[in-house]
Amino acid sequence: MSANYLEKTQILDFDNHTIQSLIAERDWQALDDYNKIGAAYSFVKDEIQFGYNRSDDISASEVLADGYGQCNTKGNLLMALLRALGIQCRFHGFTIEQQLQKGAIPAYVFWLAPKYIIHSWVEVLFDGVWINLEGFILDQDYLSSVQAKFSQDKGSFCGYGIATTCLENPQTEWTGKNTYIQKEGIHDDFGLYNSPDEFYSEKGTNLSGVKRWLYQSVIRHLINMNVNRLRKASNQSRGKNAQPQS
């Protein structure tokens, strides 16, 4: 067992009381490893909604408090939960093509998105094998709304936060195997890191300067409003109320 894949970091702050309380309330420590991974994965996938936080390098406890996240920030929370449960995990860094964000990011603010956007997935060690976890990015309500909007597209699809070879049935549920939802949009592969902290200290985050300020202060809220509108269609059809994001 490698201590590097279980350590606490500034981003992976799994000793935070909110994370520890969540684990205790759900009694996840009583589960076997397969179900520990599944419980943490399903929570991050569907109880943390798809949305855009203030930055990629925020702590796991901040993601939990926000109640929403995207690939990088949801990954921060998933890694923290896994390590808190004694499950080894590591960070794999990439960039993705900006086109897969079109639709989720409205056209009138799409100019802000870099051509190649920092992306990541979580790799978890289970039964001696490293498994790629990326399918947690989109909550089921949001994914269902996109599937309904593009019901004629059964196969390859790129946009709305998705890049997959099978929109009708993407590999997003934990079954002990790799899960993906944006893999087909990957451009650069930066390799493996012990933690997101190591990656961001080397590569930085997606935006800086004035663009970063605009994104944090105004634009991400507009993007989240758009994501919520898309999700609301699915919620209404299933008799649910969409939860607003701030």
TrEMBL record:
**What is this protein's record name?**
Transglutaminase-like superfamily protein
Q: What is the lineage of its organism?
A: Bacteria, Pseudomonadati, Pseudomonadota, Gammaproteobacteria, Alteromonadales
Q: Which organism is it from?
A: Thalassotalea agarivorans (Thalassomonas agarivorans)
Q: Which Pfam families match?
A: Transglut_core
Domain Transglutaminase-like: start-end pairs: 30-134
